[in-house]
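yo

u said u wanted the structure for the complex thing, so here. seqs first:
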Amino acid sequence: MAALNRREIVAKLLANRGEDLLVVPSLGQACYDCFAAGDSPRTFYMWGAMGGAVPVALGLAIAQPEKRVLCIAGDGELLMGLGALAAAAAEAPPNFAIACIDNERYGETGQQQTATGRGTNLTAIAAGAGFGTTMMVTKEADIAAGVKACRETQGPVFVTFKVDDAPLPAALPPKDGAYLKSRFREAVVGKI
Ligand SMILES: Cc1ncc(C[n+]2csc(CCOP(=O)(O)OP(=O)(O)O)c2C)c(N)n1
Ligand SMILES: [Mg+2]
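structre next:
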């Protein structure tokens, strides 16, 4: 297990984000990481919707081709909805990237080991699904290249960051789903 720090990685993924970056973090700790890096109306927190982050982010990327869409997803999240990777690769939006924050654990529910801790390689699965750019980041020196791919490389992009499994303090974003949906919609397409 590499010892990369997930909060540092997510802060780098979201650094200097302008109005053109839309972010969909998967439930639990990915939401906390994004909130800890700075709340934004252009972040659509998934809260408890496990398996929903990639489908939501994919639809958003197709609907908003002028924006960059970054899905920041846990390993458990992605393992729950592997078919979404095939759909994303098949649709192949050039503005779409997935950053997998892989702690090899279902961290939020008590640190149970996931399949990535037992040999499953999500980067290889994404490559097999047809993602044009895939990377596995296990050391500090490669973080910048992984971040750059997520922010700039033509999509679909898939980057796994192997991170420390130490639990971190929660940083809780707003929880009201209707509020989050409305503020996101207003930030992206304006008031209706
Ligand atoms: C359908 C469904 N099953 C189970 C859960 C309970 N649950 C919430 S977070 C979580 C683990 C998420 O793991 P991962 O995506 O790897 O995130 P981590 O906390 O490790 O960053 C689980 C099993 C849920 N919210 N929804
Ligand atoms: Mg995990």
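The chain has a mean pLDDT of 96. The longest strand covers residues 68-74.
cya
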